[in-house]
Design a protein that fits this description.
alpha/beta, 2-enoyl-CoA Hydratase, Chain A, domain 1, six-stranded mixed beta sheet, about 240 residues, 2 domains, 12 helices, globular
Length: about 240
């Protein structure tokens, strides 16, 4: 239920369960985790797009039927593994949000570098109403992106945003009509697809608030000294 289309330096990963609003099962999460691990090992990769099948939802979060069972889906460490592996990819990552983003769907969305949504897409994270806790990385990334006050509006007040509101507060970066989504992704991918790998990786790492002085040095060495070992260390930052 995860489809991966590889077009040279760009991969498109599709959550392919439209009949269930692309709700994530444990097996889908494991497949996503492996896909992102494979992506890190591809030196030719420059852009990875994550999207959903259908026009209803990007992802409705956890499969509630499975979450209601005894398999521990809602507290599984796989959620954090998936979002962290995506966030740490040394490439440009784009969430192409074909519809509503709910609950655990935020993990993938927030872990991407850019987010583009269709008009009218909804954004809500109903953990309070459902009696679950959000994933720690989701709370941190959401607060860093839109500020703690707006994050509380979504997580604690249970407010649902539409795409225009999400754009206004910085939760997404662009709104693209369905017929224009493909061209928007092409435009956003163009520079990265032809970029020198070392420069792309270094800029990605420099954009992290958690970059250490040693890692910053590696950025300069990888780009200006053509230091292959420094580049490899940047590629492997928090690789787990």
């Amino acid at each position: 239920m995860i489809r991966v289309d590889k077009e040279g330096p760009r991969w498109t990963v599709t959550l392919n369960r439209p009949g269930k609003a692309n709700a994530l099962t444990l097996s889908m999460l494991k497949e996503l985790s492996q896909t992102f691990a494979d992506a890190r090992r591809d030196p030719g990769l420059r852009v990875l797009v994550v999207t959903g099948a259908g026009e209803r939802a990007f992802c409705a979060g956890a499969d509630l039927a499975q979450a209601a069972g005894d398999d521990g889906l809602t507290i599984s460490p796989i959620w954090e593994q998936v979002s962290n592996r995506l966030a740490r990819l040394p490439v440009l990552t784009i969430a192409a949000l074909n519809g509503t983003v709910a609950g655990g769907g935020f993990g993938v969305t927030l872990a991407c570098d850019l987010r583009v949504a269709v008009p009218g897409a909804g954004f809500f994270y109903p953990v309070l109403a459902n009696g679950f806790l959000p994933q720690p990385s989701d709370v941190r990334r959401m607060s860093e992106l839109i500020g703690p006050a707006r994050a509380r509006m979504i997580l604690m007040a249970g407010q649902k945003l539409k795409s225009d509101e999400a754009l206004a507060c910085g939760l997404i970066d662009r709104i693209a009509p369905r017929g224009e989504m493909a061209q928007t992704l092409t435009d956003l991918s163009a520079a990265a697809l032809t970029a020198n790998r070392a420069v792309l990786v270094a800029i990605k790492r420099m954009n992290s608030a958690r970059l250490s002085p040693t890692q910053l040095q590696d950025c300069y060495r990888a780009v200006y000294d053509d230091d292959a070992e420094a580049l490899q260390r940047l590629v492997q930052v928090d690789a787990r």
